[in-house]
Amino acid sequence: MAAPHRPSWKTAWRSFYYAGAPEAPDPVLVKGKVALLVIDVQNTYLARPEDRSALPPLERAREAAWDGFHERMHGIVIPTIARLIERFRAGAGPVMFARIACLTPDGADRSLSQKKPGWNNLFLPHDSEASQVVPALAPRPGEVVVTKTTDSALTGTNLRLIFTNMGITHVVCTGIFTDQCVSSTVRSLADESFDVIVIEDACAAGTMELHTRELEIINRIYCEVMRAEDLLGYLPA
Amino acid sequence: MAAPHRPSWKTAWRSFYYAGAPEAPDPVLVKGKVALLVIDVQNTYLARPEDRSALPPLERAREAAWDGFHERMHGIVIPTIARLIERFRAGAGPVMFARIACLTPDGADRSLSQKKPGWNNLFLPHDSEASQVVPALAPRPGEVVVTKTTDSALTGTNLRLIFTNMGITHVVCTGIFTDQCVSSTVRSLADESFDVIVIEDACAAGTMELHTRELEIINRIYCEVMRAEDLLGYLPA
Amino acid sequence: MAAPHRPSWKTAWRSFYYAGAPEAPDPVLVKGKVALLVIDVQNTYLARPEDRSALPPLERAREAAWDGFHERMHGIVIPTIARLIERFRAGAGPVMFARIACLTPDGADRSLSQKKPGWNNLFLPHDSEASQVVPALAPRPGEVVVTKTTDSALTGTNLRLIFTNMGITHVVCTGIFTDQCVSSTVRSLADESFDVIVIEDACAAGTMELHTRELEIINRIYCEVMRAEDLLGYLPA
Amino acid sequence: MAAPHRPSWKTAWRSFYYAGAPEAPDPVLVKGKVALLVIDVQNTYLARPEDRSALPPLERAREAAWDGFHERMHGIVIPTIARLIERFRAGAGPVMFARIACLTPDGADRSLSQKKPGWNNLFLPHDSEASQVVPALAPRPGEVVVTKTTDSALTGTNLRLIFTNMGITHVVCTGIFTDQCVSSTVRSLADESFDVIVIEDACAAGTMELHTRELEIINRIYCEVMRAEDLLGYLPA
């Protein structure tokens, strides 16, 4: 039986602005000039309560609403990023990591948006277990890891200069959350004249709807969205 | 007859992440420390073909798809921004403008994303009529106008430093397009620790769906989304 | 009679750190990838009192102390920059200008150091005659001119991104003052991984001693210092 | 017997531009809003050959020329910084460190100027002993340490944003080398609208002449130069 047809990345994830536009061209990726960037795949975001039944009803419902995210992370996103890391380490280009972490014990160095109450309030000391990249994707010695207290991995770090110094022209973005730090990083990279690729099955948001919505918004304008298998066909050996 | 009930901005435009979260607090705006930023409301985006019937069918359909945007701009967005400008000029704080424009005659200074083919390909020489702010919102002498070849009004300008030098802590964002330059600017401002407010009826995207989607994504995390009438209640006299 | 011997730029302007170091290599300049940057050669810095004898004695002495600077500017620096501009306009690469200027009528957008009392207190509205580039070096339409309220022409502008977008790898710096805005710009450019050349006879400081001291400090570490005639031998046709 | 008269910092280290200018005003330092920044006091710069007599004559002479620097560092600069650190840790404000270090094993992330041959060629992997801050000034857990591959501690790091987020308005600069990384950092800080103080006896250059020359160049324009005992009189308790 034939595999179900899936539209080419070249015409997928289109918003109103690009309806009817021509197909995206094949990217030309040069060995050593393309970097893999893994954004915010940190222990804290994969943590779950040990005993959900002990939670008050509202929190239990809230926790349940995150089930889809965790399934996607473990079933698709983390394995996909691991596969890409392996391929980049084999020689395509450097693997780099950004993670949210503050340098001071009281979080005073965090940007305003990460100090405000609510979902985005983040207090992740840089040496805490919670702020580390998940073990399945652990950086190797010698790989660049930047810490940030911002959403864009460029605004609050020296990553732009590192990319420039290393001769990187194309950045492949993966990680979480598609609509937040991934989108902010992609937008900054495009503004700074990098060629950006986002791997759909290497990213996730709180819901698939938010994930897909933001991909449609950033695709073609700030980046090319494709799947890991699409990218692997373009990566230099 | 009573006016139709509209939910308070404090619980509106919420995404998955903020479902069930407490109401947003009232912003505290201090005279001279809050700026109004008008983003990319330029002639080029309001231009329409003189005779639509002369267009080939596909372009005609494409043009028709933009009718809603133009109606919203002329009926709601531009009048709302004009009202806000008047109030800020009366003393609340400075009015500033960002516009997309290149400094070189061949556009060589544009960022990569604005050189690529498609919707986002922009070639707007800074002294062309097309790149000027629309007459209804024309900047006055002495008001700051920055030009950019990026989407974020911070990444490719010195606006962050200008805000800092002028003692601005809160930035009220208006303009187009909600999901593109407005969102990119809001994200940069939040990362740079400014308090950001986005005025829903002073922004527009290609479609209302894109507009609302991105507002839900950025609200509470990077900014507070409210309507002009909400803001006017908070602005210092 | 033979011309007086002048040491090659390759071993000149050396400080303690580079005593005994090998000669600097020949720069390799590629057409279109090298830019000429003219820094702060503005009317205000060339202005002199109409009638010096009318000044109080202390101010008259102070004015007289500046005679050497003005002689050097008119006799050497401005003619040298004019010659370089001509050569760059003939095709070597773009000519760009930075000038100190504020965008607001009260100078509120200036950086702190330009608001403090003393020599560096600067109030140069961008549309004033005083803030314009001197007529002998006037920018042509289509040439990039950035305004700044900082000393480094990179910190307070989008010049770094413009250089990157235009594919510029080498920047030739000229202008005033050697120890202030020129040095600050050179240091920023080097930190941002540009190859920098400073033209000794196209720069000036308040005194020749300050000029030479700072050239010795920045030479080899942040830039190569040479004379215009040296550069002309390396410029692409 | 009376102590030898030493001129007040308020009129010392003046260059041509500030000859005859009024005295500098007393700085107003607020608890928690002033930070101490220790720049590049790293093991590599204090290292000396074990047996100088084993060196070839030229290198031996070169090494001897550095004797003054090392005497100043051990006799004056390091003890002075240690004294300042103690006072800041007692509550005046945060102590922060910048050090030159690359993140990649081959130094590919270094800026161009640190890859060029000569004195400034630096290859200091971030986890090497050579790149650590000297033990006498070792950072405590929870103190911010930024790594950079640039000379300015702002250009190539997120220190500016950290200062802003922590509410720092005044930065006290110490470290090495006065004419290089210290000066570049001071210039960047001033451009970014921080109030900057440089402690004369907490800085050093390769020679005292270079040290004093650059202090005269940056004093009053970008910073106030004073001695540690002067600062201690202004620091909040």
TrEMBL record, chains A, B, C, D:
Signal peptide: none annotated. Residues 35-230 form the Isochorismatase-like domain. InterPro entries: Isochorismatase-like_dom, Isochorismatase-like_hydrls, Isochorismatase-like_sf. It comes from the Bacteria. Pfam families: Isochorismatase. The keyword rRNA-binding does not apply. Keywords: Hydrolase. GO terms for molecular function: hydrolase activity. This is Nicotinamidase-related amidase. It comes from Neoroseomonas alkaliterrae.
